[in-house]
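User: what does the whole thing look like in 3D?
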Amino acid sequence: MERMPAEDLKALQLDRLKAITRYVYDHSSFYRQRFAEAGVTPDDVKELDDITKLPFTRKVDLRNTYPTGMFCLPKNWVVRYHVSSGTTGKPTVVGYTKGDIETWTESLARALTSIGLGRNDVIQVGYGYGLFTGGLGLHYGAERIGAAVLPTSTGNTERQIELMQDLESTAIACTPSYFLHIAEVAERMGISIKEDTKLRAGIFGAEPWSLETRKRIEDTTGIKAYDIYGTSEISGPLFTECQHQNGIHVWADMFLIEIIDPKTGEQVEDGERGELVVTTLNKWAMPLIRYRIGDLTIKESEPCECGRTHPRIMRILGRTDDMLVIRGINVFPSQIESVLMNIPEVGPHYQIIVSREGALDVMKVRVELTDRGFSDRIGDLMALNRRISKELKNVLNISAEVELVEPGVIPRSEGKAKRVIDTRKV
Amino acid sequence: MSEIKQISLFVENRPGRMAKVSKTLSDAGVNIRAMTIAEAGDFGVIRMVVDDPQKGYDVLRNSGFTVSMTDVLAVEMRDTPGGLYEIVSALGDNNINIDYAYAFVTAKSEKAMLIMRVDDIEAARRTLSARGVKIATPEEIQKI
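Assistant: Here's the predicted 3D structure for the full assembly of 570 residues, as structure tokens:
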């Protein structure tokens, strides 16, 4: 399946697109109404490009139909629920049939296999277990490939490290910011992840992270750091990079992806940046048609060096909701992260504080000074401060105030890091 | 000759940080001989000479401070007008730059002690010794 010729994959996608379109039309009053508003019926889907005739769905639709208004099956088909945390609004509920769990598990099993993991591995799952999809998602995928799962969930960092040593974890799945924290705590305990553990791979996601962070993680801990992608609405974590670390493989038999211009809604070419739109082809309790997650990325359809033919999406730049507009200029926290990670004098934890002074937006970046960056000459510290400001300005085109802080001052997170504090009243 | 080791700390400019530093040293039985705080807006650098630099460095580091050890010169000055001039002019004449300096008066003698970080510590030592300026050893600092 993973190396199926592109043409055959497309034929399979078309069959499944027709089927799912018919299915939602027949099973969901929400979709029937949406299709009617757009003036389409399932019969209008004759080829893959006809997908553009179908209306988009968005997170707000899930919220408006809370809790289960977008389900296409009676609830007795549901074998599991996951619920989003609702930090950015009303929570969203996702239901899964037995088959939906199976698709999700298969997707992650392929992904974990593509990074070289298998039955000889011990995979430490440091994502939260529970309503959040991360923990259970990885758990099922890892079991499917025959690996041993160490379900540590989040928190209790010292115990995570002890178990990592004692049970010889070879891979860990968690947020990149939590792994950085684990590495820090390990160092304080006198344990080097590189020398004193068997860890060789990390599967990091649930928050945007930069290539520079990858480099820093790989250099300091000696593991290979892989990007994982997914979101609860389309199941949870689903896709990863393969060992070539060149884009995230999206299994085309399960999901059909498009990249669109967020303003016009038109599809853009491969290689062009745009907003990711996902149609679930093999998900039955709560299928989604042309769902706009809001993540910005680039699609690549050429087969990967590894031989897999499914399309890839390049590193997620950020979510449209994460984008800050400061003095009219778009700023992604991931851009700031890229700059900071290239400066060895500062640590990997940072915070962005946006406020308004009078009519002017002011951005302050707080970052921790490392031992390496510390000089007891004030002049050197001021110069470092100016250098960081200058590099931020080069990348962002707006000036940012930099505040050097002591290590450990910026709050550490066990799940998704909260890096932006925006005190502006909109 | 072994140098005087000064402990330098990076601290945020907020209430209670200095108290945390001094409590940490006091709990470890480390005595501060001389100290200065240089502030630069949001943060400051504390520099100090203590009786047991290695121990001071270790306890501060283990408490999570960003800390470094720097080689400095401790020289005796006459505690009379012109005492400082004698020293800094000698260094200036020889093109040795002082990054920073701070002074304290010892209880037992009429001498004052000047702590300096210079850009060329060996040249400074030679220059000052040639002028008959007494340079303190770590042992002497410990005994003050």
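In plain terms: Helices of chain B lie at 17-27, 53-62, 83-93, 121-130, 138-143. The mean pLDDT of chain B is 89.
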